[in-house]
Amino acid sequence: MLTFGGAPEVLESGNYSGQLFLTERDGVPLAFRLHFEDSGKISGEGTESFRESEEGKKTTTRVTGTHTKGPTVGFNFESDGIVYVGFKKPDGQLAGKWKVKENAARKGLFTLSLASAHEDKVATLVAMGFEEAISRRAVVDLRLSLEEAAHILSTGGASALPSVPREPPKPAAQQPPAAPTMEANIKTLVAMGFAPDAAKIALQLNGNSIEKAMQALTD
What we know:
Distance between the termini: 29 Å
CATH architecture of the domain at 14-114: Beta Barrel
CATH topology of the domain at 14-114: Lipocalin
Number of helices: 7
CATH superfamily of the domain at 14-114: Quinohemoprotein amine dehydrogenase alpha subunit, domain 2
Number of strands: 8
Radius of gyration: 21 Å
Largest sheet: 8 strands, antiparallel, barrel
């Protein structure tokens, strides 16, 4: 799918954590390791789930599903008998609705956020044997890459770290992406499992807002 002013929006693979909401205020933690393949498939595993909170058992579950690219990024995946349907928000957070596959009356909202790149780097350095405080200073405070931090710490120790942060690279100027068309949003909703005619009507009734259309289709 082509957009003007830049590359299509995509979902980033990695470790996600968030909340599955049972009520407006009551939620349980979620954790997934998700891989969004170029083919449109989703694979991975769930490392903390709603069923674990209910049943008190620790399990790792398989994740399978599909996702779309474009101005609006949608996804639909299943893990541990629970179906998650949602989209990527402008701030990068994943949000949507969940339901128990064998009991559609059990449903609610969820949110997921990708673990920061800094935290992944810190965890990697700690696993390599470096102290967490020193690892955090290297990649968070001093903005070193993982390779730079590992090399400096392994050859010179903490005392060899630079005294001032490295200047971050300036981002290239980009034009804002074009707003998704009705046709693009219909394709996104169809890829998430909704019927084409129902998706079109929901979008028409909700001003081409994919968020409002998805809510109408799942209520």
